[in-house]
Amino acid sequence: MEFNITPWEVSGKINYDKLIKQFGVSKIDAELIKRIEKHTGELHFLLRRKIFFAHRDLKWILDEYEKGNKFFLYTGRAPSGPIHLGHLLPWVFTKWLQDKFGVELWFQFPDEEKFLFKQDLDFEEGQKWMKENMLDIIALGFDPKKTHFIVDTKHAGIMYKEACKVAKKITFNMVKGSFGMTNQTNVGSIFYTSMQAVPAFLPSVLKKKKIPCLIPHSIDQDPHFRLTRDILPKLGHYKPSSIQCVFLPPLKGVSGKMSSSEETGAIYTTDSPKEVERKVKKYAFSGGQDTIEEHRKKGGDPEVDVSFQYLRMFFEPDDKKLEKIYEDYKSGKMLTSELKEILIKKINNFLKQHQKKRKAAEKKISKFMFKI
Ligand code: TRP
Q1: What's the rounded Cα separation, in Å, for the pair 171 and 315?
Q2: What helix, strand, coil percent values describe the chain, rounded to 5?
Q3: pTM of the predicted model, to two decimals?
């Protein structure tokens, strides 16, 4: 197999077209993009550039919305370590959707997930990371009146009952098939997907009416929601819709996903300007040539250049400016060092603001926490 993607492991060189077929999701086509634009007035560059590239039942969500049946958003984060830029990508888009459609967001913190799946993570350490992670999420500017944090162990009183209803419809065989589990997998991990299903219908249970759900997430989470979609109709709920993004690549090369397990691959939201500069200069894979003379002659390759890809996927929303960088780099007019300089400035500007908001978020956690 050339690549392997599960919610817990991403390896190999990812072919997203193949993945669409393998997972059975649909491409977001031009017609769908137009329909979104009709409601949002403008298009987020993550949609324009196909970084959010696939979906399930997005047409249905828009049909319902147009009939006046508003959806809610659902996404999540399993705490286990610090937040890096790759984590932020789907959340930045989620925030845009919340603003444009004026909808509620349910943000799940499954604080048992990584504890169950990672051999060396103890529960208390996970709790510490959860608080840290919440600061990053609040810093992105979600509307506190419309955003509800739900924590699996804290809100177990309302979640567990619903998770059991889901779990009763899932066999060990289904979990094995969806996630590649074996007889050696611990039983907590086998149960876990039932907890991740709950926020997709919990608002409907609490409000005692069926509300459509849209889940923005990176593509690796799809196996969970494939299962969720099979089961919820059996419990009298809507199937959740979803919209999926690709991974922000690690610094070392354009394939794979930015990951906290490699210090050299990730830029964290708490990195200092010096640290950002050091990492980009030292590790960001370059599509440039070995010598300046050669680069001027042959030009660079923006497709494999990580700095360019970060600008495309995160830091340069202006299409014209991005195009100019693309042309200059490809023609050899712009050097790798100059391209990296642009990126370093952009990241540090972003992080300066983010870190300020992150600090201010410390007082806000309780505002976001769902109160039963
Ligand atoms: N499993 C996700 C993680 O590993 C956390 C998560 C829970 C999630 N619910 C979600 C992600 C819904 C996307 C959408 O971080």
Answers
A1: 44
A2: 55, 10, 35
A3: 0.97
